[in-house]
Design a protein that fits this description.
The chain is of the alpha/beta class. Helix content is 45%, strand content 14%. The chain has 15 helices and 12 strands.
Length: 444
């Protein structure tokens, strides 16, 4: 499967599955029947009335009848085609951006490139999930982004505290990622106000979602309507609607006797600069959002990560129903390991450390793992991060089916994935696994 090519082609209207030919045939049939009725009327008039001699030339009576029929048919068909094309352009001009895709490209992309793509459930949050979604939307619109709701810092934290609603920041980023990147509305959604006054630090998208929640009456509806405004490719779902607090048990490594202390709040965990023992959600018994569970159980592929390991990815897995859904879904599960360590969370972590941390929360679940193998990129020392590499010892985990290595790093931002590289490699893994399952069924 390849991403949609924007090169226009009128012949795409004739592709099977476009659901256009049937209406063109109906239009042709209707025009033919109408013309037949008009012809009967003309024949009656022709037999009764006496026309001036000039009509002999206007109706081409000096030409054999079969040739006349052919000439009139060609002229009529040409007129119909020109009229339909110009009418479509006139009616749809308000919905198309000049210089961008035309109508046939949009229909083709919807029918073939997106509407028929695999159903992918992606769990995460923050920049990592948005990066993945930005690449995946070129391959499918059957995307369900399941987003953590534990964010309590920055603009999202302020809105959460003042309005008592779920934090909108990660949802805003996912909406913008699944929308048209070149859209002015998408840029507006990501705009952040400057200054130190009340609006300072807030993003327009966060305020928009907050206002939409007030207008529609709930957060779910606000995300749905906000997604429609930007015509996103897929769905963005919260992992839970409960008001949760992310907590972490951190280890004081400087003491001779390791002391475990509790840190409450997603934004406070990385700032401790201490080893994280485990994270969990308060209160206990957090209920999963039903739509998120359905998306996981119905998916063709479940993707975990990338993103901040303990504050974006694992908070979704801390919900028991989410973890159980991942365990029982027949879809293959792919964990995308981060390309770089993160200060305050995963210093000195290897690939194996990341995998073991995820497995701790989803239990005995068979995982496929995608890692970056381009370690030649220079990372400045002042960034306080390292590229994540394989450890010196082999991973002792029978539930890791395979580890796929590929260059998926963003050379301009070496601590992040390249969205296009990542999506292309992920889809290749999906197609490989799909082909393997088909072969197994054939052999059986």
């Amino acid at each position: 499967m390849r991403p949609f090519a924007t090169k226009p082609s009128a012949f795409k209207w004739l592709y099977p599955g476009m659901k256009v030919k049937r209406w063109l045939l109906l239009l042709l049939l209707g025009t033919t029947v109408l013309s037949l009725g008009f012809a009967y009327s003309l024949r009656e008039i022709y037999d009764v009335w006496a026309f001036p001699h000039v009509f002999y030339y206007l109706f081409l009576q000096f030409v054999p009848r079969w040739w006349r029929a052919l000439l009139f048919a060609v002229a009529g068909l040409t007129a119909v085609i020109v009229a339909v094309v110009q009418l479509n352009q006139s009616l749809l001009a308000a919905f198309l951006t000049p210089g961008r895709d035309n109508v046939v490209d949009i229909v083709y992309r919807h029918r073939f490139q997106k509407g028929r793509g695999p159903k992918i459930a992606a769990l995460g949050g923050g920049t990592g999930l948005a990066t993945l979604l930005r690449g995946l939307k070129s391959y499918t619109s059957n995307i369900s982004a399941i987003v953590t709701v534990a964010d309590d810092g920055g603009s999202s934290g302020r809105i959460r505290e003042e309005l008592g609603m779920l934090p909108p920041g990660d949802f805003r980023s996912c909406i913008a990622a699944l929308a048209d990147d070149e859209s002015l509305v998408a840029q507006l959604f990501q705009y952040r106000f400057g200054g130190e006054k009340e609006l300072g630090g807030h993003s327009f998208g966060n305020l928009f979602i907050a206002a939409m929640a007030a207008v529609t009456g709930n957060f779910e509806r606000a995300i749905l309507e906000s997604s429609r405004v930007l015509a996103v490719s897929g769905r963005i779902l919260p992992s839970t609607l409960d008001n949760v607090i992310l907590c972490a048990e951190v280890v004081d490594t400087g003491s001779s006797d390791k002391v475990v202390s509790l840190v409450q709040g997603e934004s406070r965990i990385p700032s401790q600069n201490r080893v994280i023992g485990r994270v969990f959600l308060q209160p206990d018994g957090v209920r999963a959002y039903p739509g998120a569970l359905r998306a996981i159980l119905d998916a063709d592929l479940v993707v975990i990560g990338p993103g901040s390991l303990y504050t974006s990815v694992i908070p979704n897995l801390c919900i028991d129903e989410i973890a159980k859904a991942i365990q029982v879904t027949p879809a293959p599960k792919v964990y995308i390991c981060n390309v770089a360590t993160q200060l305050g969370e995963t210093e000195h972590f290897t690939v194996e450390d990341h995998i073991q941390a995820v497995q701790r929360y989803i239990g005995n679940t068979y995982l496929h793992v995608l890692i970056n193998d381009n370690l030649s990129v220079d990372v400045p020392d002042q960034w306080s991060v390292d590229l994540v590499a394989r450890g010196e010892t082999e991973l002792q985990d029978d539930h890791v089916v395979a580890i796929y290595e590929a260059d998926v790093i963003d050379r301009n931002n070496p601590w992040r994935h390249d969205s296009l590289k990542l999506a292309e490699r992920l889809i290749r893994i999906y197609e490989l696994l799909k082909a393997n399952r088909a072969n197994e069924r054939t052999v059986a």
